[in-house]
Amino acid sequence: MHALHQTIRRLRPLALAALLHAPPLASASDADGGRRPIGFTVSADVGGGGELGSGSAYGTPSLFEVEVTAGYSLALGFAPELSLELGTSPKAYFAIRPGLHWAVPGTPFYLRGAVDAATQIGYLEWRWVLVGAGLELRFSDAVGFFAEGDTGFPLESGAGVPLLVRAGAFYSF
Question: Residue 55: which CATH number?
Answer without folding.
Answer: 2.40.160.20
